[in-house]
Amino acid sequence: MDRRDFIKNSLLFTTGAVLLSGCTFTNKEVSTGLKPGSGITTAKFKGLDVSMLGYGCMRMPMKSNGEIDEELNKKMVERAMQAGVNYYDTAYMYMGGMSEEITGRAVKPYDRASFNLTTKMPVMMLEKEEDVERIFNEQLKRCQTEYFDFYLVHCLNKRNWDNTKKYNVIPFLEKMKKEGKIKHLGFSHHDTPELLQEIIDYYGKWEFVQLQINRLDWKTTRGEEQYNIARKAKLPIVVMEPLRGSLLANLNAEATKILKDYNPDASVASWAFRWLAGLEGILTMLSGMSAPEHLEDNIKTFTNLAPLSEEEQKVYDKAIAAHLKQSAIGCTACRYCECPVGVNIAGLFSLYNQYMYDDRANKNMSFINHYEALKESERADKCIKCGLCKPKCPQQFDIPELLVKVHKAYLEAKGA
Ligand code: SF4
Ligand code: SF4
């Protein structure tokens, strides 16, 4: 089973697990990143060599019973450490709140100075100012660490930015910096370029920014504008969702054929990372690796990471154009949109995307089977349109509307 098939098969059925520094650096320091010699390519950041492959702890290996496979996770972290991956990115809410603890245990055996540990303040969960300190202390404990190398205000959109100001999050985090409990402070952004500019202008001491940048979002969700704003502010960029969930590792058959005809040995995912490597100012790219083969493929890509050549760029553009001809839902499967009545939003969107990209004769039957394998309560037509999920979606999807589309596709596939 190759990576594409693995992702196809695993996305749907890993319950609860589906799914990702003002500063004195010079652009050159971050933009070249290309450390001579072998090993994982690094970017310079304030005297640090940060691996351009960031280990995203929002997707972990799972057992067939739906539990996190902690032993396998530890082995994967060991392999990553050996290969030179030194940026580990977790968050309070990842993996149903388990990621920080599991990541903390996985990195514990290693020299603390040899890797960068990153987590984030879940401002969307704050109800009072005291929550900020309580959560921060809890995070130190969960991660079994005295400090975080990189710390972010998590998932800033309009509502979360309002919470950040309302609960005085930035002054508290500044205090933690002074106490040495945070080395570098940044934020992750999930809103418009206008809000990104506002956040940058509000606080002049951000050291890095985490943005969703990838070839699919470059034009369609104003990724290029956000990138340019960060560059103008001289903020190094941590890339989240470099594969857009798994979509860029899972292009449709026509697009995959274009890439494989050009280079049969290169994984589809590697093209996405190498496209990003052509951008200036990237500090690291977060990849949520839920299986050893993902990690091995990434180690191969990021060892002497090479940007796409001009010719490869044209091939990739052609493949992306072929992919975009078919409509799909760009859900990253982050699962922030928890549904109170149990609709399996991310699973349904993944199923729909697979259906759209499937070119097999039996695609209808496969879609119907997978759809009907879901519990009744998880299906798209069980949405009661309460709208609670909509403000939680970083991609700002009209989830109830998209669910109608998914259910309509199911009915059409059945010939109803
Ligand atoms: S709108 Fe539908 S999918 Fe969203 S939370 Fe409500 S019931 Fe769930
Ligand atoms: S619909 Fe939005 S919030 Fe829900 S999993 Fe997809 S991207 Fe995440």
Write up what this structure looks like:
The protein is α/β, with parallel strands linked by helices and 416 residues long. The protein folds into two domains: 322 residues, NADP-dependent oxidoreductase domain (TIM Barrel), CATH 3.20.20.100; 70 residues. Helices cover 45% and strands 13% of the residues. The chain is built from 18 helices and ten strands. The strands form two sheets. The chain has an eight-stranded parallel beta barrel, surrounded by six helices. Strand 1 and strand 2 form a beta hairpin. Helix 1 packs antiparallel against helix 16 and helix 16 runs antiparallel to helix 17. The chain is globular and about 65 Å long. The chain starts with a helix and ends with a helix. The N terminus is likely disordered. Bound molecules: iron/sulfur cluster (2 copies). One iron/sulfur cluster binds next to helix 16.
Would you report the number of β strands? 10
**Element order: H for helix, E for strand:** HHEEEHEHHEHEHHEHEHHEHHEHHHHH
Tell me the distance between the termini.
34 Å
What fold name stands as the CATH topology of the largest domain? TIM Barrel
Structural class by helix and strand composition:
alpha/beta
CATH architecture of the largest domain: Alpha-Beta Barrel
The percent range for strand residues is: 5-15%
Total helical elements: 18
Strand arrangement across the biggest beta sheet:
3-4-5-6-7-8-9-10
Give the biggest sheet: 8 strands, parallel, barrel
Helix share, percent: 40-55%
Radius of gyration: 21 Å
CATH class of the largest domain: Alpha Beta
| Distinct ligands | iron/sulfur cluster
Tell me, rounded to a whole number, the average pLDDT: 88
Number of domains: 2
Corresponding CATH superfamily of the largest domain: NADP-dependent oxidoreductase domain
Unreliable spans are 1-37
